[in-house]
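Our preliminary data section would be incomplete without showing what the modeling component actually yields. Below, a chain of 204 amino acids is followed by its predicted structure, encoded as tokens that our downstream tools consume directly.
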Amino acid sequence: MKLIGSLTSPYVRKVRIVLAEKKLDYELILDDPWGPATHVTAHNPLGKVPCLIMDENGALFDSRVIVEYLDTLSPVGRLIPPPGRERVEVKRWEAVADGIMDAAAAAFMETHRRPEPQRNIDWVDRQHHKIRAGLDYMDQLLGEQSYCMGVNLCLADIAVGAALGYLDLRFPDTDWRAGHPHLARLAEKLGTRPSFAATRPPAA
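Predicted structure:
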């Protein structure tokens, strides 16, 4: 398998952590989807990363689709429960974490990639409100549990860890840990895992 992605994308990092936790071999192909030389469009019509190229079965895109497929490839460390209430709860965690990533990426692009006269500050504030609301929700839901779903690592933790890591990367001056002690504790624990350490994005 080949994974097309960038080192700073939290969605790509989520997939890479799953690959590491599942002990699956792959080749990482770096690509800048915003650059003129991008080649991800040859495999994903939306021109986004991550994109997983499979030997005989074409390509998969969208991190949620990719991680669900990867979890079926090996019985090692199942990360997604079978259909039922527990699975829905894991996917709910993933949806909130991905929503935080979406809002953070949108705010970063607006404030760092758009010329200042064209920036919409009200829209950026709206994205930061989404981030704060998502963090509040997850911190309360996590509580004193060791992991998002109790005592074992699952996809929920990986998605949350990728989102928190992206906030550290793009908004290092924003102390999201203040007021979110449960998430701060989880992030510290996840940071010691080899899968998280090996995929930590380079400093901006």
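Helices lie at 10-21, 63-71, 85-112, 121-142, 155-170, 181-191, 194-198. The CA atoms of residues 110 and 118 lie 9 Å apart. Preliminary results of this kind motivate Aim 1 of the renewal.
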